[in-house]
């Protein structure tokens, strides 16, 4: 999460005090939502795989 | 649409679409960021601050588009009891809220250097803030009841009632004398923006749309699997 921010900071020309935070806000908000969604799916997959196969009543 | 009411059939389709959505997100956002930050010129009045528009405008479009999609899904859930419609509405709501939040934050960052204020109680800004509260209310209602079905019904009704806010947002700049500028892309007579600035705007909008498809697929799959696990635990408990 942090590494892309540094790459972005190094690559971006200086456009003043307002442009930079706008793009950072987008990266942080959309990045955090994506990471949360990936983790959510991974947890759901783990729990679903731990279920006994269908038809197994044990 | 009812063909995909079967979660297994939907998951097969979603898993086929997902890699394309990831690819489209990377490609469109990569190209969009290049044009937005390097290839597009500064505006003759706004200067470099115009670059905020390439995040702000697509975020605002997505905020409205996602809400309209949630409302359509809610109608489908209430009328036809489409099993995936509720799941879609639940999955899309945080994504729409994130886009609305981004539209408000980036708009505020643009407003300070251009208008001299972080916030004004302008019709456009206020109606978008109401949209953000509608999203928060939708998410809160989904989790407010012990019985998830009751929460889904209440949230679906809220989503449908809130649709009235979408035309208010769109036409607020025409109906009232607002500080916010009028429509310059989706308008009668075509876009009034120079192609050099329209290109990054449309690329970023395509990137945000692909991001939405990618993220909503992830969240829908997680929700379907979580429901399967809950149903199994309930069966074991009974």
Q: What value does the average pLDDT of chain B take?
A: 90
Quickly count the domains of chain B: 1
Number of distinct beta strands of chain A? 0
Give the number of DSSP strands of chain B. 0
Order of helices and strands of chain B: HHHHHHH
Which blocks of ≥5 consecutive residues of chain A have pLDDT under 50?
none
Helix content of chain B: over 70%
Please report the distance between the alpha carbons of the first and last residues of chain A.
Answer: 43 Å
Q: Please tell me the overall pLDDT of chain A.
A: 81
Mind summarizing the main beta sheet of chain B?
none
Spans of chain B of 5+ residues with little confidence (pLDDT < 50)? none
Keywords:
heterodimer, A: 58 residues, mainly alpha, B: 238 residues, 7 helices, 77% helix
Can you offer a commentary on this structure?
By secondary structure, chain A is mainly α. Chain A has a domain at 2-8 and 15-47. Chain A has two helices and no strands. Chain A has helices at 2-11, 19-49. In chain B, helix 1 (7-39) packs antiparallel against helix 7, helix 2 crosses helix 5 and helix 3 (83-115) packs antiparallel against helix 4 (123-142). Chain B contains seven helices and no strands. With 238 residues, chain B is an all-alpha fold. In chain B, 77% of the residues lie in helices and 0% in strands. The mean pLDDT of chain B is 90. The radius of gyration of chain B is 20 Å and the shape is globular. Chain B has one domain (22-41, 50-178, 195-237). The A-B interface holds A 12-13, 15-16, 18-19, 21-23, 25-26, 29-30, 33-34, 37-38, 40-41, 43-45, 47-48, 51 and B 33, 37-38, 47-49, 51-52, 55-56, 59, 94-95, 98, 101-102, 105-106, 109-110, 112-113, 211, 214-215, 218-219, 221-223, 225-226, 228-229, 232.
